[in-house]
Specification:
With 680 residues, the chain is of the alpha+beta class. The chain has 25 helices and 19 strands. Helix 21 crosses helix 25.
Length: 680
């Protein structure tokens, strides 16, 4: 195997496009050079370059081909067509078994020739989300002007260029030259391999590997913050983005003007993040610190003092804008902004945000009763929940919707439970997001998500395998987490039906969607999602807490030796019943005690009577773990029954009686869960 190394060096690539571009390069190389069996593919990406290293075969080995043509007596036109199709001459053909045949032996093809032939087309069709033209009018496009191409095979340049007919492709051709840091080391430098490339770039103030840059940034920022007794607010997305903006990261700290420290910490953080790509800091108590962190792409001779001063000036201007929004927004009460929501479209088929608020106001008290919240406070929170959408601050920073509404509601003197509910009603937005637990907050968060789900399902805008433009999966998982994390004993169907307001089909679809999201969550947690399906099939329970408690009890039973053997016996009984029912079933009803001739069937019938009474009582009392014990005790008599009793006895009355007994075993177990749905 030989090392293939490619670097595509350009002007600055947008950070959001770099990782995808590197992945696309790896995929395209694997496809285009499949005949060379590429292996151990590694990709690199950064502000001015994407690169790839891979192991490839040194050549495509020789191959023979055999093509049978027309018969020997076929018309001349047929033979001519065969030769034209394969680019053959009459001298290359021979007769075999009364047919013309063409046999060819290809020579080995060097890897360099395969690569040189594939690369121009690959680069011309590279799938950038956005591309540009530049310079002399060449039709070749790239995300930003492409300046250099390295293509090496075991250290030797693979020669190719980007010419395409009269288009010179900007005169770009493969070489072994790259460049270091734009300011520190801009001189061209020759490289011989991927390792040599990384080493020479490191000596020229470029960290080629994105993950390494990201680690260097994180470590550097934490070290600077630690010296001040502070910590960086975690932000993996910003960290990855900044790693795509710099080649030689130099972490720095700046001071925030004390005049702006009374702004909400979320405003400070988002203003810094969105506008400047700065990191927020917290003190030991978790309060916003009057510092910000950022990463320069240059090691300045003055230690970065001038860079810090410049960034502090820029930040003051940004915070001055935020101060203006903050002060202006608070001059109008949140409640007085609600009418303006009638001018804000929510969805073309679902009306305005004002229409949505009216739905939430109707739904919130219903949910409040179910979760133990004050209905009046829930109704007030629902009325105000969307009002911050028409504030200046949320217009500037949409990520702060809800958060700003909470601040403005508190400023207006609203009840603290109302303000918190307005702040939290979008939560949880993701798996790492905290789940609100205050009753009014829970009620409004559920109302918001259930309304979203029902509304979009009602107009046919459901998630598909390829897309979920309205984040309905996230909303459904939010409902599941709100119920699970808070241990809410609520029936979901009545709440969904209240949100649907008569759209019964949409309500049923949303309920099934929620249960499916619950299965997905359990699968992600490593739980037995098949057990959940089995428990749900036993009775469509809409109390998630009860459903999960029941599933946990069944899972624990199956983990025991008795449970595993009982499942095997159940499936045997189910198979017998299914086969015999097709013949002359169904075999239902009470078995006749007088026909229980053998001790083993008598013992099973007795154990079944005891189990039915105990299981029924435990299920009614929701003692699901307790219900498993009498069911587990069926294992021994059921095993003995199958060992000693012939179900399909010659006497018809004995056969029917024994089939009824097995049917009762299945029915008793199915009260707990449909064990036929359990894997294993």
């Amino acid at each position: 195997m030989a090392e293939l190394f490619i670097e595509l060096f350009s002007e600055e690539i947008p950070a959001r496009m770099q990782a995808r571009a590197a992945a696309d390069l790896g995929r395209l190389i694997a496809e285009a050079l499949a005949a060379l069996t590429p292996d151990a593919i590694r990709t690199f990406h950064g502000p001015r370059r994407i690169a790839l290293a891979a192991q490839v075969a040194g050549e495509i080995p020789p191959a023979s081909s055999f093509e049978r043509g027309p018969r020997a007596n076929a018309p001349e036109q047929a033979l001519a067509g065969f030769m034209r199709k394969h680019g053959a001459t009459r001298e290359e053909l021979r007769l075999a078994d009364d047919y013309w045949v063409l046999e060819r032996q290809s020579e080995a093809t060097p890897a360099s020739r395969v690569i040189a032939a594939a690369m121009p087309g690959l680069l011309r069709r590279f799938p950038w989300p956005k591309s540009m033209r530049w310079g002399d009018g060449s039709a070749f496009t790239w995300v930003r002007p492409l300046r250099r191409i390295i293509c090496l095979l075991d250290g030797a340049v693979v020669p190719f260029d980007l010419r395409d007919g009269d288009d010179d492709g900007h005169g770009l051709c493969a070489a072994d030259i790259t460049e270091g840091h734009r300011f520190h080391s801009p001189e061209p430098v020759a490289v011989t391999s991927c390792d040599d490339w990384q080493l020479r770039l490191a000596r020229r103030d470029v960290i080629a590997d994105a993950a390494e840059r990201q680690r260097a940034i994180a470590i550097g920022l934490e070290a600077l913050a630690g010296k001040q007794g502070l910590r960086i607010v975690p932000d993996e997305g910003l960290l990855a983005e900044v790693a795509g903006l710099v080649e030689w990261p130099v972490p720095l700290l700046g001071r925030i003007d004390p005049a702006y420290m009374d702004l909400p910490p979320e405003v400070l953080q988002f203003s810094m993040r969105v506008n400047q790509r700065y990191f927020a800091l917290r003190d030991a108590d978790g309060n916003a610190a009057p510092w910000f962190a950022f990463v320069a792409n240059i090691a300045a001779e003055d230690g970065g003092r001038a860079i810090v001063a410049g960034n502090e000036r820029v930040l003051r201007a940004r915070f001055a804008d935020a101060r203006h929004f903050w002060d202006a927004d608070r001059r109008t009460r949140l409640a007085d902004r609600v009418p303006a929501l009638d001018a804000v479209t929510f969805h073309a088929k679902l009306g305005t945000q004002g229409d949505r608020v009216r739905r939430l106001v109707r739904l919130a008290p219903v949910i409040a009763y179910a979760v133990g919240a004050d209905p009046a406070l829930a109704e007030r929170a629902a009325q105000l929940a969307k009002a911050d959408l028409v504030t200046a601050m949320v217009g500037e920073f949409p990520e702060l919707q809800g958060v700003m509404g909470g601040y403005y509601a508190r400023h207006d003197g609203e009840d603290s439970a109302v303000a918190d509910a307005v702040r939290d009603h979008y939560a949880p937005k993701g798996p790492a997001d905290a789940v609100p637990d205050a009753p009014v907050s829970v009620a409004i968060a559920l109302a918001d998500k259930l309304d979203q789900l029902v509304a979009f399902f009602a107009i046919g805008e459901k998630p598909t395998g390829s897309g979920d433009p309205y984040a309905l999966r996230r909303a459904a998982l939010g409902v599941v987490r709100l119920v699970r994390d808070n241990g809410l004993r609520v029936g979901l169907l009545p709440l969904i039906e209240a949100a649907a307001a008569g759209e019964s089909e949409a309500a049923n679809e949303v309920f099934q969607f929620l249960i499916e999201r619950l299965r997905v969550q359990l699968r992600a947690e490593g739980a037995r999602h098949d057990v959940l399906a089995a428990v749900f099939a036993a009775g469509k329970d809409d109390d998630i807490v009860r459903l999960l408690a029941r599933a946990d009890a069944v899972t624990a039973l199956l983990a025991s030796e008795d449970g595993a053997n009982l499942l095997t016996a159940y499936k045997r009984a189910a198979n017998i019943g299914r086969i015999e029912d097709k013949k002359d079933g169904p075999h239902t009803g009470e078995p006749d005690p007088a026909l229980l001739r053998l001790p083993e069937e008598q013992a099973l019938a007795g154990a079944l009577r005891q189990a039915q009474e105990a299981i029924g009582a435990d299920l009614a009392a929701e003692h699901f773990t307790g219900a498993m014990s009498p069911m587990a005790r069926l294992r021994a008599p059921l095993d003995a029954f199958f060992d000693k009793v012939t179900v399909n006895a010659p006497q018809p009355e004995l056969r029917r009686n024994r089939l009824r007994l097995l049917a009762q075993v299945r029915a008793t177990m199915d009260e707990v869960a449909d064990f036929s749905r359990i894997e294993g």
